[in-house]
Write a structure and sequence with these properties.
Layout (H helix, E strand, L loop, with lengths): L3 E4 L3 H13 L3 E6 L7 H5 L2 E4 L12 H11 L3 E3 L9 H9 L3 E2 L4 H8 L1 H11 L6 E2 L6 H11 L3 E5 L8 E4 L5 H16 L4 E5 L5 E9 L5 E13 L2 E7 L6 H16 L5 E9 L5 E7 L6 H8 L3 H10 L15 E8 L1 E2 L5 E2 L2 E2 L2 E3 L7 E5 L6 E2 L6 E9 L2 H13 L2 E3 L5 H9 L1 H4 L7 H4 L1 H4 L7 H18 L25 E7 L2 E9 L4 E5 L2 E10 L2 E6 L2 E10 L2 E6 L2 E7 L14 E3 L4 E6 L6 E2 L4 E7 L2 E6 L4 E6 L6 E2 L4 E7 L1 H7 L1
Helix pairs in contact: 4-5, 12-13
Keywords: ATP-binding, Biotin, Ligase, Nucleotide-binding
Pfam families: Biotin_carb_C, Biotin_carb_N, Biotin_lipoyl, BT_MCC_alpha, CPSase_L_D2
Protein name: Acetyl/propionyl/methylcrotonyl-CoA carboxylase subunit alpha
Length: about 675
């Protein structure tokens, strides 16, 4: 077995690989960019090398630099993880040329599956069922238009060299085709250096079911169950599970055998995933093959009891597959939720910031957390905004869902916006519990997935007051006389009762509270209501009783910013002080950057008349494009940035003089 390997990756997957390597007695070399000098994967590795500046194009995508480090460190093999260079043919070839084992398939297999159009041709020849569409070499707009008409609508434009939902567009009608094609080509060229597209019939109620396959160097192949990854957003998986609910044993077997056939058709070695679209009538169609370890591989590990990274290392070393097909068994049900730094209430815009507070559920045989960050780390614009993967297992799907709901309630983050509340609503939604799964699940159930807060606003304000007051009390100077009121911070006054004011800002609204402190409780006045409150704070855990209702919450107070966590929900407020004032908001006729990022395209000129909803600027952040649209009808009066510029969240991009008609309509 290898004695030392290099991991050409970062974040949670690098940490995940290190754990297995160390368990097997293998030393690990990490690589890191300037932004990752203090990252968790660097601390976990036996040694680490800096490979360049923060942008991945100058560090984690520098194949020659990584090969140089592998040789210098004496690493016998390179594990690419997923993303970055994991499906890069040239990198695999460079490893082979330098007598370094690439822990993955041969470069020829990566090349065969690297082009989605070529992959479909290979699969067609191997007898694997395909979705109707076009995957030819002629990429002229006229040809693509004609093929689109043949295919019919709705259709899916997909980057030939793509992955991760980038370079993909659903087109509902011919009138939208040209704009969608241009956007998909641009995004594909930026992400993969290849603008070529393929066209597929877009099935209206499909499920995304994929098979985990493994092949060794002798040509033997097995499949290790299947995963349902239907719950997606922008073609990116959000919640995955194994096994796929509702599949018959015959379908499961047919799909698994087709996946192994697909892998053997390209002389595959190692871990791979064959993805299928599964239709309501039970038919399934080859979609693509990912020639690497998948993000969602832990759910397969949880139901099979196998360590897929260990399998990768053994097969790369030359060992045979650890199990025959008949020996592969599954037990129970597993789910994985991807926890992202993003704002679901703002169309899931990527978020950046500092993880000033991070508390994860306790890990056990039922709960697993794969992460590459620790409390205090920054989520930057340079890499994918995934914070962690939360994986749960139980005997049945219903029990596993309950585990997931509970675990999400125990996952608490402050300092950066996350999708935890959204994931909690998703996992707990009745249609999900009933396995009504399609790739359109999120769009079909938006009302369920964006519920109102579980906390009544007044009760939340009272709890916030209790948290603030109890934390202040815990920091009071201890007097020699424990009963002396002079060491207290409650605005105590001699010979009078004084209700101290407390102002809490929620969004743009300031709430005026008054608090009267008794010996063992508080009276909190909110508007015309009075609440009797007893509270006890233990670190970040508040036990409170409000008018006889006992509630337990967690919280984090930092620089007057308070976040309370309650049953998967959060309540955020600011301890308002007169010196703060309100931030000036962008004017009605201006466009502000909703996040840090880069300008990809400016689609208007000074003097242009624009209409509400018209796309004016395309920004790129966290490897995804986002359209910034006109807030109202008007005329462009100023453009402050150009293509290629980096901008900060809140920066004004374009100024618009709103027309009188638009102002009347708004009024």
């Amino acid at each position: 077995m290898f004695s030392k390997i290099l991991i050409a990756n970062r974040g949670e997957i690098a940490c995940r690989i290190i754990q297995t390597a160390h368990r097997m007695g293998i030393r690990v070399v990490a690589v890191y960019s300037d932004a990752d000098a203090d990252a968790r994967h660097v601390a976990m590795a036996d040694e680490a090398f800096n490979i360049g500046p923060a942008p991945s194009s100058e560090s984690y995508l520098k194949a020659d630099k990584i090969i140089e480090v592998a040789k210098e460190s004496g690493a016998q093999a390179v594990h690419p993880g997923y993303g970055f260079l994991s499906e890069n043919t040239q990198f695999a070839e460079a490893c082979e040329a330098n007598n370094i084992v690439f822990i993955g398939p041969p470069s020829s297999a990566i090349a065969a599956m690297g082009s989605k159009s070529a992959a479909k041709a290979i699969m067609e020849k191997a007898g694997v069922p395909l979705v109707p569409g076009y995957h030819g070499d002629d990429q002229s707009p006229d040809t693509l238009r004609k093929e689109a008409e043949k295919c019919g609508f709705p259709l899916l434009l997909k980057a030939v060299a793509g992955g991760g939902g980038k370079g993909m567009r659903v087109v509902e009608r011919m009138e939208d085709f040209d704009d969608a094609l241009a956007a998909a080509k641009r995004e594909s060229k930026n992400a993969f250096g290849n603008p070529d597209m393929l066209i597929e019939r877009y099935l209206t109620q499909p499920r995304h079911v994929e098979i985990q396959v493994f092949c060794d160097k002798s040509g033997k192949g097995v499949y290790l169950a299947e995963r349902d990854c239907s719950v997606q957003r922008r073609h990116q998986k959000v919640l995955e599970e194994a096994p796929a609910p509702g599949l018959s044993e015959d379908t499961r077997k047919a799909m698994g055998e087709a996946a192994v056939k697909a892998a053997q058709a390209i002389d595959y070695v190692g871990a791979g995933t064959v993805e299928f679209l599964y239709d309501v009538d039970g038919s399934f169609f080859f979609m693509e093959m990912n020639t690497r370890l998948q993000v969602e591989h832990p759910v397969t590990e949880m139901v099979t009891g196998q360590d897929l990274v260990e399998w990768q290392l053994k097969v790369a070393w030359g060992d045979p597959l650890p199990l025959e097909q008949s020996q592969v068994k599954t037990r129970g049900h597993a789910l994985e939720a991807r926890i992202y730094a993003e704002d679901p209430d703002q169309d899931f815009l990527p978020a950046t910031g500092n993880l000033r507070y991070l508390s994860t559920p306790d890990e056990s045989a039922h709960v697993r957390v794969d992460t590459g960050v620790t409390e205090g780390d920054d989520i930057s614009i340079h890499y994918d905004p995934m914070i962690a993967k939360l994986i749960v297992w139980d005997e049945t799907r219903d029990q596993a869902i309950n585990r997931m709901v509970q675990a999400l309630e125990h996952y608490r983050i402050a300092g950066v916006k996350t999708n935890i509340r959204f994931l909690h609503a998703l996992a707990d939604a009745q249609p999900f519990r009933e396995a009504e799964l399609t790739t359109g699940f999120i769009d079909d159930h938006r009302e369920l997935l964006f519920p109102k807060s579980r906390l009544d606003t007044h009760k939340a304000l009272v709890l916030a007051a209790g948290f603030v007051l109890e934390q202040r009390k815990s920091r009071e100077v201890i007097s020699t006389d424990p009963w002396s009121p002079f060491g207290r911070q409650n605005s105590w006054r001699m010979n009078s009762e004084y209700a101290q004011p407390l102002q809490l800002q929620v969004g743009d609204e300031i709430h005026e509270l008054k608090v009267l402190e008794r010996d063992d409780r508080y009276q909190v006045f909110v508007g015309d209501s009075v609440y009797n409150l007893t509270a006890r704070l233990d670190d970040d855990y508040l036990q409170a009783v409000i008018n006889g209702h006992r509630i337990s919450i967690h919280g984090n107070l930092h620089n007057d910013q308070l976040v309370l966590f309650y049953e998967g929900d959060t309540f955020q407020c600011i301890l308002y002080r007169e010196t703060y004032g309100f931030e000036e908001m962008a004017g009605e006729g201006s466009l502000a950057a909703p996040m840090n990022g880069a300008i990809v395209a400016v689609q208007a000129k000074v003097g242009d008349k624009v209409t509400a909803g018209q796309s004016l600027v395309i920004m790129e952040a966290m490897k995804m494009e986002h359209a910034i649209k006109a807030p109202a009808d008007g005329v462009v009066t100023d453009i402050f940035f150009a293509e290629g510029d980096q901008v900060s969240e809140g920066a004004e991009l374009i100024a618009i003089e709103v027309t009188a008609d638009a102002e009347k309509e708004e009024g």
